[in-house]
Amino acid sequence: MKITFHGAAREVTGSCHRVQTGDGTVLLDCGMIQGGRERHERNREPFPFAVDRVDAVVLSHAHIDHSGRLPVLVKAGYRGPIFATEPTVKLCEILLPDSGRIQEEDARWKIKRLKKKGEAHEWVRPLYTEDDAMAALERFVPVPFDEPHDLGPIGSVSFVKAGHILGAAIVDLRLGDDAQRLTFSGDLGVEGARLMGAPQAVECPEFLLMESTYGDRSREETGDRTEILHRIIEATIDRGGKVVIPSFAVGRTQAILARINDLVESGKLSGVPVYVDSPMAAAATRVFELHPEAYSEEARRLLRLGDQPLEFPGLRITSSVEESIAINKSRTPCVIISASGMCTAGRVKHHLKHNISDPNSTVLFVGYQARGTLGRVIQSGTDPVRIFGEWYPVRARIETIEGFSAHADREELLAWFESLGGPPRRTWIVHGEEDAAESLAEALASQFGAKVDVPHKDQTFSLG
Asked: What is the mean pLDDT of the chain?
């Protein structure tokens, strides 16, 4: 048996790992690369393996950096099943068609710009279309948590709650006749999250793939993150500005809404319009509300008391483009939560365009910004910044609350590894920029005596 790392190797996005046994091949995730000027070219590169020889895909969760190239895979000829938890399937039914629409819109926008310049545009094509995404969704097979699912001669798979977002799973594979265990952490959630439960422990496997997004650091802010959020919103509203929060439609948006709900319910925040300007986020929030069993104990307690943690006075869900435009035309101070979380696409770029040069406004980052993304550029202090091909001076206040990240930090990653009860025979560190991955690998080796590798892209290892 062997494993090859085709993505999220010494970088955060593009999760894709291929496990080959004597009886077949399983692909763990098939995510889109986000960030960096080369992302468009990299996402279009042919898969470095025979697509028709993959027998099954196992998807850890719905985020686009884990699921976003599934339509490309199916378009390239994949005809097997895509196994995921039921909430992940429901979220992908929202995310993947939306991603296809974005690809089509981006292509139309590029064609328009090229035509304006009098340049050739016939070569411009979307990475995939909404119809391609719908075709991929036909291959999805929902699997319950904590129940082994047969993969035929390859073995079996079980999904364990990872706590990262709704439906996120730790993938536990049993491979071959001797049922050797390979566990893929997926993206691990945080302890004490306001909405989602903590990641569950699993028994120590022979082989482990472990994420390392925050493998080299802990969340830095001190004090209650709800209070920090309150102070930032209150100060911006007092200045007459707007708070623009780039936020992933799935997971982060719902976590922020739960915290603002606390502020409204306690009377600390009132009369402030809070816009969720993302049809995808609105649809995802409805899916969250259908699965309260995945919530944290505190969130379930509120539900028992009749308090919906994702609904409060002042919340306004926008769906149409006209409604989105109206937010920017209005001079009323407000909070705008909009996707995408790394500012790579979507309506948030329009809100940044209209507010980033306003000294009364605030751009508040509440999640990880990958290298090369517009979010990382803004967060790092670059001035001016380029949005839709135009340069804008940065006059708004730039704030970050890392505690809202849905990723476990260094201490939580180490604690989860320790909960395995001993080091696996071999561990590979994925889904982290090189410094973060190397730092976590060194810690696992020194503290637990683990045999750890940080793979390079397309590197293959034996599972002997």
From this structure: 91
